[in-house]
Write a structure and sequence with these properties.
The chain folds into four domains: 155 residues, Lambda Exonuclease, Chain A (Alpha-Beta Complex), CATH 3.90.320; 138 residues, P-loop containing nucleotide triphosphate hydrolases (Rossmann fold, 3-Layer(aba) Sandwich); 138 residues, Orthogonal Bundle (Fumarase C, Chain B, domain 1), CATH 1.10.275; 186 residues, Rossmann fold (3-Layer(aba) Sandwich), CATH 3.40.50. The protein is 44% helix and 18% strand. The protein has 26 helices and 24 strands. The strands form four sheets. An eight-stranded parallel beta sheet has the order 10-9-11-8-12-17-7-18, sandwiched between helices. Strands 1, 2, 3, 4, 5 and 6 form a six-stranded mixed beta sheet that branches. Strands 19-24-23-20-22-21 form a six-stranded parallel beta sheet, sandwiched between helices. The longest helix has 34 residues. The chain is globular, with a radius of gyration of 29 Å. About 2% of the residues have low confidence.
Length: 776
């Protein structure tokens, strides 16, 4: 009797043992989940009344338990079916993918003949066209003995890996069950946070945790989740960040955990350690050949990818600490793509650190795999006050008239007529509206929607017939698909609008090559589907995950996050007290106006406050403004009225080196004022402890500028949640303010000043959204 057991899905078993050949990421239009369900239903209605669907099957091989659900079995003809909904001809399916489909079907076949005592079985691989719902069926008949032999061969190929993974899981859980806190003792506020995170994981709930800077939020969330892994049988922890700096802090925290526990550290006997940490990065950051397409005919690191993957995978799990550098080193040593090695390692990592899109984007790989594999996944989301805006962008899409023109000039003759039709419909709609901006009461007008659908269909057919083609036309097709995708789920949670703007008329190209000689050539139009309440899309994700902790220094009011993100009604809330004595931060209000109409008149008073504070308490300060224009005016006025005061400013386009140079001016015991834009690169995620920064001036409430789009957003949110919430402007604006002010005190020993440069900060509705411990 084995001393270990391991459960694996049919899909995972076959992907591990049957995937061979090239990596091929060439675009081929694929069926959506809804189209897949429609394909399954189309097959079902054509089968006999006794047709069985979603058959749960299970089999044992030694200590290996193999589970799955077969698509359909028709007892009348003794046929087992695997149904795949596709777009395009069956011949276009890569051979290695088709081999994988057969392996899955044959594995299900082995399980059902064993379960029902069948001597043989007909196997049918059924490909259903998503558009026509026509079937292409590939058949073979196999004996029970042949199916069992194939099943056992796949199990033998996986058995050693399964034993290794079972051992790893046991060692990981044993180490985490006695995991010491790496810093000896938790700080008081950090302990409150850690206890709340542990309870949320233990009870399978979501948690909103507002916790100020200085308590150690990163360790305060990761440590309790690691301790919860064994008790709650968690498969993975995902630490998702909204900013790149959060990923660095997470890795530092995880490294400190690893160093503090002998059971987690790599040793000669266990070189991989007991905890696998994987960092996910964007494809653009990991790609070795950005000028090449992702398939074996173009990129050497895609050629034979799945043939060389097993050795790379084996080395990677021994490495265990899989940051981007380690992934690149291992991948290149085995001649495969670093980015896609990282995607494969998702299946075998314990902690995954990456951007929030991996969990919340429609195509998020971490969430998608968790659902497919049935993982118990707990998430921690850092700087979660950014999640509303990040998620809005994930479920929004745009298309411009200029983009259609550009696509038409690159398109073959057969595609130009549909593109011209789309351009004309869009242009005519824009010309018919009296103002430059228009928001539609509901969905797109029917004629425009039909033209858009037709372009999507014809481009899809084009790329099915030309699978090797890449370039700008394909990028345009992706824009069309994105717009169609969000349009398909359009509702009160989103806004459909049209923005018209004039453009310079370019010299007309030949009529058969360009739209520039058409009547609409003197304008551009931007068609947008703007998501306003991402909770419509995120709610099912929160419900599917084991637990989620959203944490930030600025999450109030809790209802804002619950309403807009679609959190479960039983989500917990904690507001961790600040570790700073209130007297360490002096918060003052300057009684002046920073409203747009008053800015020029109040500039002298504003810069005099800066100079007076600097004269009384010399040191390094940050001054935040609502725009670069306002920043430039204030900097110029300060230089004129107080030329002796050192200053430096954020520029409109700053690369990494320029940003570092800006921050390098903040030296200990330094003196000067850095001018920056609220909500920009220096307003959050910047750590300038001690005397590197002793104060901040915030010359704005962070309110978005008045615009037709902003008014529509306000109206939609008021209609959904009631008026006077401030959800459209005041709440997100003051979150930016509090984030910027949080740059001042970074440890319990720091002291500093925050100047709120507007008399509106004295209003009750504004003060209610500021930290309670601030003494105004």
């Amino acid at each position: 009797m084995s001393d270990w057991t391991y459960t694996v899905s049919v899909r995972s078993l076959c992907e591990f043992t049957a995937k061979r050949g090239d990596l091929d990421r060439r675009f081929t239009p694929s069926a959506t989940a809804l189209e897949g369900q429609a394909g399954q239903l189309a097959v079902l209605v054509r089968r006999s009344p006794g047709y069985e669907t979603e058959l749960p099957l299970e089999g044992l091989y030694g200590a290996l338990r193999v589970r799955g659900r077969a698509d359909g079995y028709e007892a009348d003809v003794n046929r087992l079916e695997e149904i795949k909904t596709i777009r395009g001809p069956v011949e276009a399916i890569p051979e290695n993918r088709r081999a994988l489909h057969w392996a899955q079907l044959q594995t299900y076949g082995a399980l059902i003949v064993a379960d029902r005592g069948l001597a043989e079985l007909e196997l049918a691989l059924v490909y259903v066209d998503a558009d026509t719902q026509n079937e292409t069926v590939l058949r073979e008949t196999a004996t029970a003995a042949a199916l069992q032999a194939g099943f056992e061969a796949r199990c033998r190929a996986f058995e050693a890996w399964a034993a290794q993974e079972a051992g790893h899981r046991a060692a990981r859980d044993a180490a985490l069950s006695t995991l010491p806190f790496p810093l000896g003792e938790l700080r008081p506020g950090q302990r409150l946070l850690a206890e709340a995170v542990y309870r949320a994981a233990a009870n399978g709930r979501c948690l909103l945790a507002q916790a100020p800077t200085g308590i150690g939020k990163t360790l305060g969330t990761l440590y309790p989740l690691l301790r919860a892994m064994p008790a709650q049988a968690l498969d993975k922890i995902g630490y998702m960040t909204c900013k790149g700096t959060g990923r660095i802090m997470a890795l530092d925290a995880l490294n400190s955990v690893r160093e503090a526990s002998p059971a987690l550290r790599p040793t000669a006997d266990a070189p991989q350690g007991a905890l696998r940490v994987l960092t996910l990065v964007a494809k653009e950051q990991a790609c070795e050949h950005p000028d090449k397409a992702c398939h074996g005919d173009a990129c050497p690191l895609a050629s034979g990818f799945y043939d060389r993957l097993p050795r790379a995978r084996a080395e990677a799990v021994q490495q265990a600490w899989l940051d981007p550098t380690a992934q690149r080193r291992i991948a290149l040593a085995h001649g495969i793509c670093p980015y896609y090695l990282g995607q494969e390692l998702l299946r075998w990592a314990d902690v995954v650190v990456g951007d929030v899109h991996h969990a919340f984007d429609p195509h998020g790989q971490l969430f998608g795999l968790a659902q497919a594999q049935g993982w118990k996944l707990a998430l921690a989301v850092d700087e979660a006050h950014n999640l509303v805006e990040r998620a809005r962008a994930m479920y929004s899409a745009t298309l411009s008239l200029d983009g259609i023109r550009s696509a038409e000039t690159r398109a073959p003759q057969a595609l130009r007529a549909p593109l011209r039709r789309l351009a004309r419909e869009l242009a005519e709609l824009a010309r018919a509206q009296p103002d430059d901006y228009r928001a539609f009461d509901g969905d797109l007008p029917e004629a425009l929607a039909e033209a858009l659908q037709f372009v999507g269909m014809t481009l899809g057919e084009h790329f099915q017939a030309h699978p090797l083609e890449t370039g700008p036309l394909m990028q345009f097709y992706f824009e069309v698909l994105a717009l169609l995708r969000v349009l398909d789920k359009f509702g009160p949670h989103s806004l459909c609008d049209l923005q018209r703007s004039a453009v310079a008329v370019q010299p007309a190209a030949p009529a058969n090559l360009s739209l520039l000689d058409e009547p609409e050539a003197d304008l551009d139009v931007l068609l947008s589907i703007r998501n306003i309440v991402p909770g419509f899309f995120l709610k099912p994700r929160f419900e599917a995950l084991h637990s989620v902790t959203l944490f930030s220094a600025t999450l109030e009011p809790a209802d804002y996050q619950r309403d807009l993100l679609g959190l479960p009604e039983d989500s917990a809330w904690i507001d961790v007290p600040a570790p700073f004595p209130p007297e360490h931060l002096s918060v003052r209000v300057a009684r002046l106006s920073t409203r747009y109409a008053h800015r020029d008149a109040s500039l002298d008073a504003l810069v005099d406050v800066l100079a007076a504070q600097f004269g009384e308490h010399p040191g390094n300060y940050l001054a935040f403004f609502s725009s670069f224009d306002y920043l430039d005016k204030a900097a110029a006025r300060l230089a004129r009225r107080h030329p002796e005061l050192p200053q430096w400013s954020q520029a409109r386009a700053m690369g990494d080196a320029a940003r570092r140079a800006f921050l390098d001016r903040f030296v200990p015991q330094g003196r000067g004022i850095g001018f920056a834009v609220l909500g920009g690169a220096f307003a959050e995620g910047v750590d300038l402890p001690g005397t590197r920064l002793i104060g901040a001036f915030i010359a704005t409430l962070g309110l978005p500028p008045v615009s037709p789009v902003q008014e529509q957003l306000r109206a939609r949110l008021d209609a959904m949640f009631g008026a006077d919430h401030g959800y459209a402007d005041l709440v997100p604006g003051l979150q930016k303010v509090v984030q910027a002010a949080g740059r001042v005190l970074r440890s319990v020993d720091d002291r500093g000043w925050v100047w709120l440069m507007d008399q509106r900060y004295l209003r009750p509705e504004v003060r209610a959204l500021l930290p309670a411990w601030w003494q105004l």
